[in-house]
Amino acid sequence: MVSRIFASIFLLFIISNLGFSQKINGKIIDSDTKKPLAFVNIRFVDNLNGTTSDIDGRFSVDIKEEKLRLIFSYVGYFDTTIVLNKYSSNFLVVKMIPKIINLTEVEILPQENPAHRIIKRAIENRKFNNPENLKSFSYNSYNKMIFTADQNTSQLNDSLNPDSSQIKTRKFIEKQNIFMMESVSKRYFKENKNYEEVLGSRVSGLNDPFFAILATQFQSFSFYDPFFNLLGKNYVNPISPASTNKYFFLIQDTIYQQNDSIFIISFRPQKNTNFDALSGLIYINSDGYAVQNVVAEPNEKDSVYGIKIMQMYKKINGQAWFPIQLNTTIKLNTIEIDHMPFLGIGTTYLDSIKINPEIENRVFRKNLKVEINKEAGKKPESYWDLFRVDSLTLREINTYKSIDSIGKVEHLDAKLKSLKILANGSIPLGIISFPLNRFVAFNSYEKFRLGLGIFTNERISRYFNLGIFGAYGTGDKNYKYGVNVIVTPWPNTDFKINLIYKNDIEESAKQQVFGKHSLFSSQNFRNYLVNKMNGIESFRGEVKFRAFKHFVWNIGAEYSNKIGLDDYRFVLKSNEGVEVSANNFSFGEVFLGARFAFREKLIRNQYSQVSMGTKFPILYFQISQASKLLGSDFKYQRLDIQVDKIFRIRYLGNTNLTLKAGYINSSLPWYQLYNGNGSYLKFYVFSEKTYGTMGVNEFLSDKYISLFWEHNFGKLPFKNKYFAPNIKLENNFGWGSMSSKWRHKNLNFNTMEKGFFETGIILANILKSKISSIGFGAFYRYGPYSLPKVKDNFAYKINIGYLF
Question: Which of 317, 359, 381, 738 is the most buried (most CB within 10 A)?
Fold first, then answer.
């Protein structure tokens, strides 16, 4: 007994001399909004060491002394001091009080800004610290995104005396979110090969897992590329070459962790600069001068949405710095719920990170960037418990219960399908859809074209669509009609069979159109000016498919009969002054076309496939061969090409280039040739990738080259909520020629052997709303085909833009 007591006393003596140690966890929040504060500096007063909170405001400290004094500091908040001892609670909530701070007023610096040395070192080490420069990596990620209403906004209507509707809405928001989704995915990366598989997906009220990938698509994966992408818009990265000439950097604090220093630096664009800039805080670790934390948002507040991102990095196994947490907060100012803006909060946690693992090439799926596993939406609750960093809150549990129940009653999956159909340009009504572009159109020949198209949709089958359409022109007093059958054996691929018959009219000598124009494309404004048409009855069949990785192919055949609708005649032969001419011809062609998009990124689920674009040029081409064996009156070859590319130039804006060319090796009626693609009226709406000073049918070619160059400098320094002008310069060039001009009778045209030139300037966004904008521009025609009177070479344009 005595020995046992002695042993106990001895152990207590040893333990007391080893020192006291207690781990305390906590969370740091804003005292007003109660939202967590990321990357708060936590300094130990009694020594030089410290730590920071994570993205969710969480922190952990060890108390090894009787007393530990902590100072919490963060830009925009008053310092908070807390004293901890062995009696302190194991979990603390630290509330920090915000203060009014204007970083733009802090300009007093020594001769050389000390932050520049650190930023330049970080820039020099970009290629070593960028995770996407590694030989390979893999990781698992858990993603969660909730949508709610921002109750802290100042836009509340009479917040001191809210009406019953606002009270009801606030209670709803306090109890649950409006919408919520989670996903689990596995990503593999190897030498520019990239593949991510969504293994699990849960979306409140929906079975379709497609929306679950949203949380990972709002921001760039890392903070090292010259441009950082937010919601599809590129901003100049403060950690990019020469950024110290455009960004203002200020060291806010320094934290010491063991042998390393963490420099906390604020950044914003310098005064009197004008570019797409970010502002925020960046934490740079002296270990490799790598980015450890980032808080950033667009410097210019947008009237449509606000977005703020946070990224947290960690050195994995002493090998490389790698993102471990990504947060996104989006406020949609155009969508309000009882005067409260719609708010989205997304969080991504990365784990099981492997640096430079051996990854077999068979893991990657050509251009496929993201693929949603067909079983992703069927995971049990036990599956999610394996990946969630924290258990669901009561509010989140209520969201799933409530919205899932509403989803079943309100058939939200069916309504989502209808929304997808509408996004593709059709109005759904049960099992049929009505294409929007078939209702009404206008051109100078038909005047108002009134019509209707009826197509089956995916509610009948995802594997085929049957459609008919009809139209009537108020100007030409004629009816048009057609039938269309589309077969998609594998809906989540590019494979498609398209069969179409039509008895209609079309623009004569229209250039080959590549790609798909949206209903809001400014190129549609040119259609209103078209006044030369020919009748057409055609049968067309084509097969579209993806092969050879970066190519989407289109192969098929078409037989058409075209007839003139005016007194135009094409001379078939001439002998001793006797000419044989006609205006009704048949054309039979086989064709092979392709779209080449190098490293195009694709997202696929079991129902569909969506392109996320590419940063490389996109090439289109089509080769056509006409033969009398196919019923053609003429034998010829035709080649059409188009190249599109956007160049992003830091601090100077974007350059948009489009090169088009066409070649026909035989003399043909003008229905099959190329007009100049002009869109001239003295005062008219701007139509991109057309010649603003060229008449619609002024030029005709069987060989041509066109180059459309546009540079957008971005917003000017002076702007407000409704006035945010930006300058666009336009320079367009064209060349063309034609053989056997004498064959075309009763047709006035010119050719472009000497080259057509025009230049223009557009002041866009002179007036803007939350969804659209209006600007004004002027174009000038010069060179060999300029007109005798200077004033006739000018064309004035209204520029209409849409913010979606």
Answer: 738
Q: In whole angstroms, what is the distance from residue 408 CA to residue 29 CA?
A: 37
User: Rounded distance, CA 144 to CA 216, Å?
Assistant: 9
SS3 state at 777 = strand
Amino acid at 127: K
Decide: residue 661, CB within 10 A, 0-12 exposed, 13-18 middle, 19+ buried.
Answer: buried
Exposure of 328 in the CB half-sphere (CA atoms within 13 A): 23
Q: What is the pLDDT of residues 388-440, one digit of tens each?
A: 988 888 888 888 877 666 556 555 666 666 666 666 778 888 899 999 889 99
CATH number of 488-802: 2.40.160
Name the average pLDDT for the chain: 86
Tokens 């590019």 belong to: 494
How high is the pLDDT of residue 356?
95
Q: What pLDDT does 717 receive? A: 60
Please provide the CATH number assigned to the domain covering 20-96.
Answer: 2.60.40.1120
What average pLDDT does range 694-713 have in this prediction? 96
20-96 with 488-802: one CATH topology?
no
Query: DSSP string spanning 268-304?
Result: EEPTT--SS-EEEEEEEETTTTEEEEEEEEESSPPSS
Q: Where are the domains of the chain?
A: 20-96, 103-155+164-410, 488-802
Give the burial class of 692: count Cβ atoms within 10 A of its Cβ; 0-12 exposed, 13-18 middle, 19 or more buried: buried
Q: Please list the alpha-helical segments (H only) found in 77-233.
A: 114-124, 126-129, 164-175
Return the residue matching tokens 């069927």: 378
Structure tokens at 71: 């100072």
Q: Taking a C-beta distance cutoff of 8 angstroms, is the pair 56, 324 a contact?
A: no
CA 42 to chain centre: 37
565: number of Cβ within 10 Å = 16
Alpha carbons 719 and 726: distance in angstroms, whole number = 10
Q: What is the pLDDT of residues 201-260, one digit of tens each?
A: 888 776 666 666 666 777 888 899 999 988 888 899 999 999 999 999 999 988 888 788
Nearest in space to 386 (alpha carbons), one of 211, 140, 188, 198? 140
| Inter-axis angle of helices 412-423 and 394-410, nearest 10 | 80
CA distances from 410 to 179, 404, 416, 457 (A): 15, 10, 11, 20
Predicted pLDDT at 691: 97
Reported as half-sphere exposure (CB side, CA atoms, 13 A), residue 415 has a value of 9
Q: What predicted TM-score, i.e. pTM, was given to this entire model?
A: 0.82
Q: How many CB atoms lie within 10 A of CB 109?
A: 13
Burial of 714 (0-12, 13-18, 19+ CB in 10 A): middle
Q: With residue 18 as reference, give the H or E element that holds it.
A: helix 2-18
Measured CA to CA, the distance from residue 486 to residue 503 in angstroms comes to: 18
